[in-house]
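Key result, reporting period 2: structure in, sequence out.
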């Protein structure tokens, strides 16, 4: 087993406006991209479970030409709300970094 970060050059989250988060996962190379995508581990279903949102709220884009996956979900609370724990949305990617991906 390896963790997702070991296949990527960048995993980040940020606001996509005050009501949505976007995640960018950029892979090191085509082999890493294909390995993770073929594993089935990284999916809209996983994002829905991990971030406790309905599957129909997950927008999941695979951009093969850029070796990138882009994901958008609603924020749990809007940016700047008194209950907001991350104004810029920059820490929400943390659970994805340690995502276990089978290697064999």
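The corresponding designed sequence is given below.
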């Amino acid at each position: 087993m390896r963790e997702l970060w070991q296949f990527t050059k960048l995993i980040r989250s940020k606001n996509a406006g005050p009501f949505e988060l976007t995640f960018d996962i950029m892979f090191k190379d085509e082999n890493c991209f294909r390995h993770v995508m073929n594993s089935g581990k990284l999916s809209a279903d996983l994002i829905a479970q991990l971030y406790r949102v309905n599957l129909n709220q997950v927008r999941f884009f695979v951009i093969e030409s850029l070796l990138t996956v882009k994901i958008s979900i609603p924020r749990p609370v809007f940016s700047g709300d008194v209950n907001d724990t991350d104004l810029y949305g920059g820490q929400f990617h943390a659970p994805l970094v340690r995502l276990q991906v089978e290697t064999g």
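The beta strands are 2-3, 8-15, 20-27, 59-63, 68-74, 100-101. DSSP finds three helices and six strands in the chain. This case is discussed further under Risks and Mitigation.
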